[in-house]
Amino acid sequence: MNSNVAVSVPGGDVWLRRLSSVVSLSRAAQEAAAEIMSLGRPIPARDHIIRDGNRETSIKVLISGFACRYKFLPAGRRQITAFVLPGDLCDFGFVSSSPASQGVMALSPSIVGAVDVDRFASIVEEYPDLMAAVLRCAAIEQNATQELLLSLGGRNALQRVGHLLCELHFRMQSAGLLRDGQAFDLPVTQSELGEALGLSTVHVNRTVQTLRKLGLATWRDRVVSLPNPPGLAALSGFDPAYLKSEMA
Amino acid sequence: MNSNVAVSVPGGDVWLRRLSSVVSLSRAAQEAAAEIMSLGRPIPARDHIIRDGNRETSIKVLISGFACRYKFLPAGRRQITAFVLPGDLCDFGFVSSSPASQGVMALSPSIVGAVDVDRFASIVEEYPDLMAAVLRCAAIEQNATQELLLSLGGRNALQRVGHLLCELHFRMQSAGLLRDGQAFDLPVTQSELGEALGLSTVHVNRTVQTLRKLGLATWRDRVVSLPNPPGLAALSGFDPAYLKSEMA
DNA sequence: CGCTCGGTTGACTCGGGTCAAGGCCGGTGG
DNA sequence: CCACCGGCCTTGACCCGAGTCAACCGAGCG
């Protein structure tokens, strides 16, 4: 199903960049981290990266592309619980040696790097800061999930979409993936946005149009640009604090 | 503000029980865990246990009572992100040495045990299983948050309330806190339930009544009983798998 | 060339929010 | 002992944000 070709990683530094944004790493630790994540596997859009309930033997990092974590309701509806951007870990199950509690799927053609958990464990012995970095990433993850919970619990459609766009803008910026003019790629369907935000496709569509009319966001041909970030942040109550890690 | 009286802990074993339900601990590790958590501080209802943004110097465990984690929307609405039951850790910030990203408040008069993080760190050196147990608890926490996200994203009011009651029933059972006849204490107002489920107080009220009429749940005088647990689970799509840890 | 997928639009419906008022305690002070 | 008051629960009337259903368009593709 998936291609098994290993490819060298052009943008492999997103992973290092991510870790460093969260904990300051020694030169040696950086090299160790970079070395273990040097190869990636291409994944076509809509393919699973991790299957729900699977006990993964490797730690997976998105190198390029776009992915999401999700769970299914018994009714059949899919709820997206998080978007995975380049540099992000796909699943944190390994931290507690638990199987994955949710699926991870590529939303656009992606490249995924992997490290064997045992190998990682032995590297971590030598560079404990790496583990600290991973735990920080997990904490930020958790914060993001809770922020989404806030959206579903207390924000209306306009604020939800606006808030998500602000978050993605911020994270893409951190990952160094903004185009010029502050725009960024959002290779996702409106229906998928709705699955994350608890909105119907139709209503996502109308909401996006309202944002455009308000001059707060444009989303065409899979590219989002935010002409007035502070305005959008104000409308949607976005405060990036929850995405930052306090360097103690 | 809070009373500073330290009290001996009658039900201090909920903590041990919780850890053991998640990882099997050696006798020595059990004793170490029990010993560090031998005293608790009483907290009146509505008092803060942890303030948002605070960098906690101790690890706090709810010994008895009932508490919640929450965040505020800019608009002023409060979103409860989790309920904390006896035996549960109040906050996991210490795992990544981050400050608390959310507040924790007692919903009924409670007793909270605490261990200094440094002390805990040194105990963990000797009994790594304890850390494993804590990480498992954190993972389950995360699962619960996501399940709440599923509720807000895709379940209607009846299912949300039903699902939450199923979850609390299950967790109270695990903690050994069921009364006879499968009933359990729920010392929470309908308004607070609404703050967790993204519903107005009024609608929570009507929903609870509907559940009673359906013969699926009764909630009177702060005591919940579920005459037909499988029926309620079916209605609300409850599957306790997400609350269990797979003993590898 | 026709099919499918994603985006767009309109008409209609409804679950749940809001507002407002009343009832039932338990606590407090005169 | 009683009057009062503030939480919390309850109920009714009304309204609106968002879901649903259905149709259409354009683009990519086998």
From TrEMBL, chains A, B:
Residues 155-230 form the HTH crp-type domain. One of its GO terms (molecular function) is DNA binding. The keyword Oxidoreductase does not apply. GO terms for biological process: regulation of DNA-templated transcription. Gene3D superfamilies: Jelly Rolls (2.60.120.10), Winged helix-like DNA-binding domain superfamily/Winged helix DNA-binding domain (1.10.10.10). Signal peptide: none annotated. It holds the Pfam family HTH_Crp_2. Keywords: DNA-binding, Transcription, Transcription regulation. The keyword RNA-binding does not apply. This is Crp/Fnr family transcriptional regulator. CDD domains: CAP_ED.
